[in-house]
Design brief:
The protein has 594 residues and is α+β, with helices and mostly antiparallel strands. Helix content is 30%, strand content 22%. Strand 13 and strand 14 form a beta hairpin. The longest helix has 20 residues.
Length: 594
């Protein structure tokens, strides 16, 4: 039986991440960065595309697993007829090279354990040449090299283009494996002590998690979400990837399979708000600084997403040798949506920098100049249709959410000039822009007969992004049009107690065949909107349902199939975990949320 998305747990070193299955197999790992080619790609293919399994001989799924509290260190345990054993997986924060550490420990009895390592570089397409060197098994292919060793050393052998080990552990005995990647033209990096790495990783993660100042009823879920966001951060630049994976399907067997290993501007305000509200000022500042570097340049060239260091070119291509997760083809790397015009990102950038300024993040003298240039670009360009926040591939429209976010951009600029005397700008002109956009949205984006805003001008379709209207301050929560929109979205886009982004079946804008699951971030938005309009009991009930969707180690993907009871889309998804944190803060009465 093919694994489900929720069968996986995440480990990482804040530069890349791996997914570990319930069977003890690492099925996804890109080295050295999140967006590098995978050396384990079984997640999107089969065993011949690369994986590393450590488990009791003959055993299948584990008996139990859990993160050590407050960490990204994963313990997986099996109970067998011969005894019990634990495998502890981690990726210590690197000094030079990325290391994957796997510690096997006997808990009782005498258990035979088997390790099967199949390295396949370039997304499972390249079988490396293996050799022995100085107590290591060394794999080399082109630019890639990986060194495997164990402490204490156990016998290994090659078979079926894999590296195998078999050994026994009794109670208290340990065997640690370390897999280290480095460029093949460079000498082997210094060895990491696996037991010290484990000890330091636990201590470092717990110290970081202890800084969380949220102390509400869902602290465990909030801390797990924050740890996940930290794990999805590319530490050298401060950028946060949308997910650790590519091409996990939004519909099993479907074609909605995209690469999310990049940094979206759209996530910026909600991410910054979550980090600041929970006490993570340094991480918030790093994210703000990444954003400022990434968007520097001609405002007409502003992109919706960038690479980990702000790279602009993310060409999309398909990998035909991979069969896809549960047969969901095509497998894509890169993301063609980077070329789309999405006007809402200008609003997100302005809102993020406004929030950063109000929160007291250290000022950068060029930031306001950049904001002024962005707003002047919007003044001449906001009337254009765009592809909207969902990156539709069915043509441009005058999306209501995009226009609302143009209003946000103008509003935040006006508020900045009104609040900070040191800033200068066209206050009257920006006020006029704000008023004009507001008036047009209310005239062209609102259906008076149904008392709801619509997906785009002149349409009857709805969009879950309309739930953000009160959150961004476009209209107050008690405005009848806001209440009507919330009710309409819940009624028409609701599915089994959750919310879809929009109607795939009825909307002409989608441009893709097939369907998708409910969108978890949108469902958190509905909970927020219900809370803002005084329906807190309903909001709490929805929030509890959403928390219940998380897998056994607290991770959320992008979407969910409430009928089949399974997660869908790339995993774990930053946007979903940001939604969990911000909704938990809002429901706890923390006005700093988001």
């Amino acid at each position: 039986m093919h694994p489900r998305i929720e069968d996986y747990a995440l480990i990482g070193d804040e530069q890349t991440a791996a997914l570990v299955g319930l069977d003890g197999s690492v099925d996804w790992l890109c080295l050295p960065r999140f967006d590098s080619a995978a050396c384990f790609a079984k997640l999107l293919g089969d065993e011949d595309n690369g994986h590393w399994r450590i488990a009791p001989k003959g055993a299948d799924r584990c008996t139990r697993r859990a993160y050590r509290p407050g960490t990204l260190v994963l313990d997986t345990e099996w109970e067998t007829a011969e005894g019990s054993v634990r495998v502890t997986d981690l990726m210590p924060q690197r000094h030079r090279a990325p290391d994957l550490v796997r510690v096997v420990e006997g808990l009782g009895g005498r258990v035979t354990v088997r390790s099967t390592l199949r390295l396949r570089f370039d997304y499972g397409s390249v079988v490396p040449w293996m050799r022995r060197s100085d107590g290591h098994r060394v794999a080399v292919a082109g630019p890639d090299s990986a060194w495997l060793r164990s402490e204490p050393e156990v016998r290994t052998w090659g078979e079926a283009f894999g590296t195998h080990s078999e050994f026994t552990v009794e109670e208290g005995e340990k065997v640690a494996f370390v897999l280290t990647w480095h460029p093949s033209h460079e000498p082997r990096p210094p060895l990491v002590d696996p037991y010290e790495a484990l000890e330091h990783s636990v201590a470092d993660w717990r110290a970081w998690a202890a800084r969380c100042r949220y102390d509400g009823p869902h602290r465990d879920a909030v801390v797990r979400s924050l740890i996940t966001l930290k794990a999805l951060t590319y530490a050298p630049t401060g950028g946060i990837v949308a997910a650790a994976t590519t091409s996990l399907p939004e519909e099993l067997g479907g074609v909605r399979n995209w690469d999310y290993r990049y940094c979206w501007l759209r996530d910026s305000t909600l991410t910054l708000g979550a980090l600041l509200s929970c006490g993570y000022q340094e991480e918030a500042e790093a994210w703000r600084n990444w954003l400022v570097r990434a968007v520097a340049g001609d405002p007409a060239d502003l992109q919706i997403m960038y690479g980990l260091a702000g790279e602009r070119r993310l060409p999309e291509l398909e990998l035909p040798w991979l069969s896809g997760f549960a047969g969901s083809r095509p497998v894509r790397i890169g993301n063609e949506a980077v070329k789309q015009l999405q006007l809402d990102v200008y609003g997100e950038v302005m809102d993020t920098l406004s929030l950063a300024r109000r929160a007291g993040l250290p000022a950068k003298p060029h930031i306001w100049s950049m904001q002024s240039v962005l707003l002047e670009f919007l003044r001449s360009s906001w009337r254009q249709p765009d592809e909207g926040l969902w990156e539709v591939r069915g043509g441009r429209r005058h999306f209501v959410h995009s226009k609302v976010m143009v209003w946000v951009a103008a509003d935040r600029a006006v508020r900045a000039l009104e609040s900070y005397s040191a800033l200068s700008g066209d206050l009257d002109g920006w006020r006029a822009l704000r008023d004009e956009v507001h008036r047009e949205v209310c005239e062209k984006g609102y259906d008076a007969d149904r008392n709801t805003f619509t997906q785009y001008y002149g349409s009857r379709e709805l969009d879950a992004a309309l739930l953000l209207i009160p959150r961004v301050g476009f209209l107050p929560p008690d405005d009848p049009r806001v209440v009507g929109t919330i009710d309409a979205v819940r009624d028409e886009l609701g599915h089994s107690g959750f919310v879809r982004r929009y109607s795939v079946e009825e909307s002409p804008v989608d441009g893709l065949p097939g369907g998708e699951g409910v969108f978890l971030a949108c469902s958190f938005w509905l909970a927020d909107a219900l809370h803002m309009t005084g329906r807190t009991k309903e909001a709490r009930e929805l929030f509890e349902r959403l928390v219940g969707v998380a897998n056994d180690v607290g991770l959320l993907s992008e979407e969910y199939d409430p009928v089949a009871g399974m997660q869908l889309g790339n995993f774990p998804q930053a946007f979903s975990h940001i939604g969990l944190v911000n909704t938990a803060l809002a429901l706890s009465g923390d006005e700093r949320a988001g």
